Amino acid sequence: MIDHDVIIVGGGLAGSRAALEIAQSDPGLSVALVAKTHPIRSHSVAAQGGIAATLKNVDATDSWEAHAFDTVKGSDYLADQDAVEILTQEAPDVVIDLEHMGVLFSRLPDGRIAQRAFGGHSHNRTCYAADKTGHAILHELVSNLRRYGVTIYDEWYVQRLILEERQVKGVVMYRILDGHLAVVRAKAVMFATGGYGRVYNTTSNDFASTGDGLSMTALAGLPLEDMEFVQFHPTGLYPVGVLISEAVRGEGAYLINSEGRRFMEDYAPSRMELAPRDITSRAITCEIRAGRGIHPDGSAGGPFVHLDLRHMGKEKIMSRVPFCWEEAHRLVGVDAIREPIPVRPTVHYSMGGIPVNVDGQVRSSADDLVEGFFAAGEAACVSVHGANRLGSNSLLECVVYGKRTGAAIARYVRNRKLPAINESPYLDETRRQIQSLLDQDGPLRIAQLRQAYQDCMTEYCGVFRSESIMREGITRLKELQQQYNQIRLDDKGSLWNTEIIEALELRSLMIVGEIILTSALNRQESRGSHAREDFPNRDDGNFLKHTLAYYSPAGIDIRYKPVTITRFQPQERKY
Ligand SMILES: Cc1cc2nc3c(=O)[nH]c(=O)nc-3n(C[C@H](O)[C@H](O)[C@H](O)COP(=O)(O)OP(=O)(O)OC[C@H]3O[C@@H](n4cnc5c(N)ncnc54)[C@H](O)[C@@H]3O)c2cc1C
Fold this sequence. Notes:
This protein is of the alpha/beta class and 575 residues long.
């Protein structure tokens, strides 16, 4: 058994920021961070557009209250406003902290941090490092981890959470290099395992975003919050789905349909291309459905619309969004200086997740907390994004709540003893699970079943939803789940067996997908990213509340939790 005071699962922005906070606040603590990728290959590294904070470098009239209002309105009034106040009040300090750590933000001519426009934000407040902001921040954080003595287990897959008598005591993890299994015992466990974009067939997320932390939490009998709210980013590069950052529209690009028209004037006339993502994604989907999409040969009726940067000019494109230019050029052969980029919505972000309080401690119900268990970042739901996240608020959440959760953990573990664990049943169980995967010998390849599952989620729980379609989807998902024991692994060895990891990840996807679909079926209204064709209006009377979904193989139990409202009463949401 391996012992640490604290084990953090996830080396992205949230996990790294928390680890650093703990190590800095109490250098005597033994802090470990485990990631199935190398930490600097976490999805955070791919974040492009920026991080929001009211530094007022570009717009002196901005304020944290305006940032809070934009966030709550963007969330369609489902965000918990106490959590949003913390997020927006602490934003300027955490960005300055990052800059002191060495993060190279883009600058104004006078040397202060530059800030750009972003969807749903009423002021120019997004700080950025060209269109590689995640890369700039994560590299700095991870190099600081080493400096402060955090132990890093990279390329270990955490397979199980150990929860006994309402207390989390550790995790079981698998070393991808050689198949070695280990129990880690800790006074506090933190999940910062990121999102689940891979539940769908088209996503901007990396291959590791498979929702493992969410499924382990659900399998331990703990609830997941607001899982029906899946963010579709409006501008996924067609056909691959990778992201063309909102920064491109922030810098002035247009969305154009097959008639050559800026169609956003029909959907959000005051914000146009900088409307929030839920509205813009629905607008693109409606245009495509109405036959005003574009085909690769340029004719009408096709599967994408155009993102047009040409009027911005070469110099602005290459200095502000060079990476987006490169993506379009490298992946689909489009030179955005001369031609428009083909785009359509792509699954991007998980508003829901592991329910936590504002100190990052995990909830077992609306009123109770779990001992020894914390979460932050995209895997958690605190909830600052409610039913729809604004761009550049996620990196901010990772840093603000990563730091706060780290500080809370450092306080929590003080004067506590390591819990008692009998490790053998856990090792036996995880070993058996792996052995049975190696032993089963069905006709299916992992990729085949995964593709069928991802297609099913995309077809039955996409941008628009309805009861009859989702019911059909649940039946289909169950059929696919039954086929899990018919997959065959070709690699039977223990050295670098990535098939085992893919099979375990597929199990995570299947559990998370079922929870998303069931939560979506139960929310009989349209709010933020959750658009029901059979219930087109927001229904505050019945649904101004958070979903808590409790998973069990027999079925999912749906309960609810009230929304915290402090200063902004729900209003109609118009842009
Ligand atoms: C292409 C793209 C661009 C984006 N751009 C922006 C932006 O400009 N601004 C913004 O605010 N947001 C942006 N976002 C969203 C934002 O980047 C993410 O929400 C955020 O970085 C998530 O960070 P995280 O620390 O929660 O998780 P991640 O960075 O996803 O890290 C998850 C970690 O968990 C580990 N892990 C997962 N499962 C296991 C397991 N079973 N065992 C061990 N380790 C495990 C992984 O290895 C990884 O280290 C973007 C997202 C994408 C996909």
